[in-house]
Structures are given as C-alpha cells and as structure tokens.
C-alpha cells in the first residue's frame, strides 16, 4: 500500500490558536474545514475512539467558524435562512439549525448561538455561509453587520468532561443544560462556554475570543486534566457514525432536504412560511421525502474508509441509495455505516447490497443513531 498523500499547509489552510499545541500532542492527520486545519487522527482512529468514550479529550475545533450577525435585524436575518422557529429561543440557548437554499436544499447545518436578540453567532459546518448571509443582508437592506469574528471553539468531550470543567470553573457548570451557554472565567478571562459538541459522550465547547490566549486555555485544561487522563482529540469517525452525527458535504449536500436528513423536527410551519426555501419544504412535508438517512450494518471483514459514496443496490441491481460514511465499530462488533436509502427500501431490517471500495457487502437497514449495546 502506498502512503496517503500529505497535506501542504499554507496561509490558506488557516492555522488556529491551538495548532502549535495540537502538533506537540502528536496529531497524525488533518483535513481542511472552512479553509482551516481540523485534526482527524492522533494515535489511530480506533485508539482515539476508545479514549474518547472512557476519558476526556480537548478538541481543536476552531474550524467551526462563526458568522456573527449583529444589529437590530439580526434575528430577522437568521430566521430568514432556517426553517427552525427561533421564536422561543432564549439568550442563553444554542439551536441546531438546518440552513437551506431557495429549493430547500441543505446549505449547512450550524449551531446558532443566541447571545441577545440583536447578536447571534452561527457556528458553521463546512460551507461558505459568510457570503450567503452577507449577500442576503445587503440585498434585503437589513440593519445588521455580518462578519467572521476572531472566535475559535475548543471542545472538551468525553465522560469526564464535567469533572474536568468543574475543577477549572466550579461545580456550577454541572447545572449548565444541554445546548445552553454561560460565561465562565478561565485563567482570568470570561469565555462563552456551551454544553455541546460533535460527540455523544457529553462535553462542552469553549468559544475562545481572540487568538492570544489559546495556548493558556489549552494548558489550563491539560494541567487540571492530568488526573482524568486528558488527551488531545478530535471528532471521531467511528463514534460519530454510532451517534448519527451528520457531516455536511459528506452525508448530505445541497441536493438533500432537511427531511431526507432526518431533520424534519427542525422544520416548523410558522418558520417555513417566512424562510428561504419554505415553499419547497412545505410541499415536501406533505408528500414526505423520497429518501432518508439511515444506519446500515455491513457484513464482512473490517471496511476500508468510505472516501466517495458507495452505491446501495437491491436484489435486482437497481441503485436505491448510497453509503457516505463507514467504519468498524469495536463496541458494536460490526461494520457500521451511514447513508441515504430510497423509500420502499428504508424500513428497518431491509437487506440490501453495498458496493464498497473493496467489494460487495450485505447491508441491513437500521436506525440512526445506532442503538446502544
Ligand atoms: N458545535 C459547534 N459548531 C459546529 C458543530 C458543533 N459546527 C459544525 C458542525 N458541528 C455542525 N453540525 C452539527 C451536527 C450535529 C450537532 C451539532 C452540530 C448535534 N446534534 C445533536 C444530535 O444529533 O444528537 C442534537 C442537537 C439538537 O437536537 O439540539 O449536536 O458540534 N459549535
């Protein structure tokens, strides 16, 4: 087997306030996300997985870039771009929001962080929503500033993350609700900290403002974390499939609707009446989607990584879907995958064929997230 290619790092593949620490902690692979470095592996994906599910990790997820929307029309702009109703959203809440185009296709699936009625951060997945939001604000002549602030989320993920954070900021953080945020003092400075993150192991995201204190915050976490066996980590390709966490650009693109992505619960009638793409979404809500995201269990030896979608076929050989992520799950003792499956084939228990890179596999359709063992 030939070595995988290296990534050439330059100014365009932006570094983060934590990159030096990530390097010192032995990062072994990166991807690029929002034009910024995102670690993908430290030891091995499988070793990182076991550690994440048992201890606590610090994640450089600065690539979850923020678009700040600030001004009297901030809420109007954010509500215009999502079918999720923001009416009940409180000033300490984060909402997972589908962002759709004029046809109802998924442009992004960010976390919206509400700071006040006239100030939101839209914490992006990997697509250039800064220009979409800026363009819409200009086109509609809204009274808002739209810009990318110098804010870099740092994840603290894993079952021991509450203990670690409580040691640093006090036991009050244990009461922070899921997808709620508050200011906490770390090393003499207040930061917005939310209970959120791209794992199902529990944890927080510290929104570092400015670049200069990145290593200080990192070092505080590692010093206090020694007794919890803290390590540098990153979003994990096995754990995220088990947990059914979607990756925009991989599991879904602009070709897919929120209903296809299992995000129909975030499409509210009152919001679809006013948001971009709302007409298309209301029509699809009546008929139902033509395909839907599912978990798949694949037979055979350990699967290779799924770089480009693997076709799913039925017994006649017709294409009825595609797998967009797959991995061997040690805890399930099986190959697990995530993918879109057409109506008529999407019932749990349906057996299909997946054309993986290294050959065909039997596949059984099941729920997402995978049900815990
Ligand atoms: N945190 C922050 N920004 C982000 C991500 C994050 N931006 C990029 C990316 N992740 C956006 N995508 C997701 C996908 C899933 C979730 C969050 C962001 C997530 N989903 C919960 C789940 O599926 O269980 C449910 C959340 C809910 O229903 O409210 O957490 O991770 N800052």
What does this structure look like?
With 373 residues, this protein is of the alpha+beta class. It has three domains: 19-61 and 150-241, Gyrase A, domain 2; 66-147, Alpha-Beta Plaits, CATH 3.30.70.1400; 291-373, Aminomethyltransferase beta-barrel domains (Elongation Factor Tu (Ef-tu), domain 3), CATH 2.40.30.110. Helix content is 20%, strand content 31%. It contains nine helices and 21 strands. It has helices spanning 19-24, 45-54, 74-80, 129-139, 161-169, 214-225, 239-242, 269-272, 278-287; strands at residues 29-33, 36-41, 57-60, 66-70, 94-96, 99-100, 106-108, 111-116, 119-123, 145-147, 151-157, 181-186, 189-194, 203-209, 231-233, 291-298, 310-313, 319-329, 334-342, 351-356, 359-366. The chain has a six-stranded mixed β-sheet, sandwiched between helices. Helix 5 crosses helix 6 (214-225). The radius of gyration is 21 Å and the shape is globular. The model has no long low-confidence stretch (mean pLDDT 97). Bound molecules: (6S)-5,6,7,8-tetrahydrofolate.
């Amino acid at each position: 087997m030939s070595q995988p290619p290296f990534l050439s790092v330059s100014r365009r593949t932006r570094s983060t306030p934590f990159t030096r620490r990530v390097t010192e902690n032995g990062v072994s692979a990166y991807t690029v996300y929002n034009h910024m470095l995102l670690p993908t592996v430290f030891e091995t994906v499988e070793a990182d997985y076991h550690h994440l599910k048992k201890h606590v990790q610090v994640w450089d997820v600065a690539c979850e870039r923020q678009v700040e929307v600030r001004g009297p029309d901030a809420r109007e702009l954010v509500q215009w771009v999502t079918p999720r109703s923001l009416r009940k959203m409180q000033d300490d809440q984060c909402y997972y929001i589908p962002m759709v185009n004029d046809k109802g296709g998924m442009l992004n699936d960010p976390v919206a962080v509400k700071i006040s009625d006239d100030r939101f951060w839209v914490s992006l997945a990997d697509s250039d929503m800064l220009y979409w939001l800026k363009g819409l604000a200009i086109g509609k002549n809204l009274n808002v500033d739209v810009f990318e602030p110098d804010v870099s989320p740092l994840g603290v993920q894993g079952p021991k993350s509450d203990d670690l954070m409580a040691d640093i900021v006090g036991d009050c953080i244990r009461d922070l609700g899921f997808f709620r945020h508050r200011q906490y003092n770390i090393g003499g400075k207040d930061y917005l900290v939310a209970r959120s993150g791209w794992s199902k192991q529990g944890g927080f995201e510290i929104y570092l403002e400015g670049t200069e204190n990145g290593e200080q915050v990192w070092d505080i976490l590692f010093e206090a974390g020694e007794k919890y066996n803290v390590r540098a980590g990153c979003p994990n390709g096995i754990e995220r499939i088990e947990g059914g966490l979607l990756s925009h650009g991989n599991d879904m693109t602009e070709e897919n609707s929120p209903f296809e992505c299992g995000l129909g619960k975030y499409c509210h009638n009152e919001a679809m009446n006013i948001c971009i793409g709302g007409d298309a979404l209301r029509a699809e809500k009546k008929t139902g989607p033509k395909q839907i995201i599912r978990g798949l269990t694949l037979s055979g030896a350990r699967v290779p990584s799924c770089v480009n979608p693997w076709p799913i076929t039925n017994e006649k050989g017709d294409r009825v879907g595609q797998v967009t992520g797959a991995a061997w799950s040690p805890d399930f003792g099986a190959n697990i995958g995530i993918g879109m499956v057409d109506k008529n084939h999407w019932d749990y228990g349906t057996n299909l064929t997946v054309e993986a890179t290294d050959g065909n596999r039997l596949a059984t359709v099941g729920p997402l997230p995978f049900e815990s063992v």
